[in-house]
Design goal:
Blueprint lengths: L2 H9 L3 H13 L5 H14 L1 H11 L8 E9 L6 E11 L12 E6 L1 H8 L3 E4 L2 E6 L3 H13 L8 E4 L1
Parallel strand pairs: 1-6
Antiparallel strand pairs: 1-2, 2-3, 2-5, 4-5
Length: 163
């Protein structure tokens, strides 16, 4: 192994290490936004799937037991493939959304772009909406997403609702 390969190996991060660095970069108020943005863009360039996973899990995102809504936008003529969009809802309790902890407001969160990046799909635009073209059934797709987010054996960690 030459020095360059050793440097690449030492530069590899686990998702947990990446998440700590990315979150720290985002929340570090001791530096200017421009300085933090340079580091954030560098991390995103080296770990694009980790960025997608971070956005899906961190910013009020998915947790075990969350429901993923699958909107089927288009079917192929044979019915074997479909274009889907994915989203979930987040309960907002801050006053900016005319909400209180006793009466939260639901805010839709679009998941399609980051799910596509995490799972290696190409995200297309279909009639103004991001879509993923797949031949998986929606329940199977969400089970695969669940495993990508939470690990092997966690295929039932997310619930699927088809619209």
């Amino acid at each position: 192994m030459n020095a360059r390969d050793a440097e690449k190996q030492s530069a590899k991060l686990t998702f947990e290490q990446f998440s700590e660095r990315y979150t720290a970069t985002y929340n570090d108020t001791s530096r200017t936004w421009e300085d933090r943005e340079v580091e954030r863009v560098d991390l995103a360039a080296h770990y694009p799937t980790f960025v997608a996973k971070w956005w899906l899990l961190d910013t009020p995102g998915l947790s075990e037991g969350s429901t993923v809504f699958v909107l089927i936008r288009k079917h192929s003529r044979t019915g074997m493939s479909r274009s889907i969009s994915l989203f979930t809802f987040h309960a907002r309790t801050d006053a900016g959304y005319n909400a209180t902890p006793e009466k939260p407001q639901l805010q839709p969160l679009t998941l399609t772009y980051n799910v596509g990046k995490l799972m290696g799909y190409t995200v297309h635009n279909c009639e103004g909406s991001d879509v993923i073209r797949t031949d998986d059934y929606p329940q199977e797709f969400v089970a695969n997403l669940s495993q990508a987010l939470f690990g092997i054996g966690k295929h039932g960690a997310l619930r699927c609702e088809v619209l």
